[in-house]
Amino acid sequence: MKILLTIIVILILLVIGTYCNTLFRGRPLIWKQVLSQLMMPTDSQVAILGLNYAGLFIDIAKMLKAPGKVTGVNIGNDNVIKQEQQRIKDHQVADRAKLVDGSLVNLPLESRHYDYVLSAFTFHSVSPAINRGRAIQEAARVMKPEGTLVIVDFGDLQQYRPLLHRLGFQNVRIIPTGMDGWWGGPWLKTGILVAKR
């Protein structure tokens, strides 16, 4: 009985440790990798759909120079807006950072305007699941014809591939993140979807 209890405790600690590694260490590493591969020009127009990963919005604003701008779409969280507004002030990026409230299925963004559309751990929360297709269509609508879509999320990213192909995205890649993206274990892992027309 003691051995079984010890094994259970060890497994629980491993799950908690893996989850915390992704939460505090893995997410920044994943986005650092993504941003280094995108090599965004400093005058890019960038949209972030959902502000679920604190830091990404300001990191991108600091990479840009006016007229480059990052627009963050807040999905119904007043506290996030307040925090990000304060961070805009603290980092002095008001000339290249903008916040709007909205919904992934009806984005308050201009059509064919953004060079990059990014989403951090947001698409899985769109419900009902059928609305995720609508959210993909909206992301495609606001992108420039030669734009790039990046979705970092857990769950089945393959589900978006057929719709993206129908929307004209010929180059769709899904990149695993390894243990840095495990939310407790390999049963809930983060992937990176990169789509270009």
Automatic annotation (TrEMBL):
<protein>
    <submittedName>
        <fullName>Methyltransferase domain-containing protein</fullName>
    </submittedName>
</protein>
<keyword id="KW-0489">Methyltransferase</keyword>
<dbReference type="GO" id="GO:0032259">
    <property type="term" value="P:methylation"/>
</dbReference>
<dbReference type="InterPro" id="IPR013216">
    <property type="entry name" value="Methyltransf_11"/>
</dbReference>
<dbReference type="GO" id="GO:0008168">
    <property type="term" value="F:methyltransferase activity"/>
</dbReference>
<dbReference type="InterPro" id="IPR029063">
    <property type="entry name" value="SAM-dependent_MTases_sf"/>
</dbReference>
<feature type="domain" description="Methyltransferase type 11">
    <location>
        <begin position="64"/>
        <end position="151"/>
    </location>
</feature>
<dbReference type="Pfam" id="PF08241">
    <property type="entry name" value="Methyltransf_11"/>
</dbReference>
<keyword id="KW-0808">Transferase</keyword>
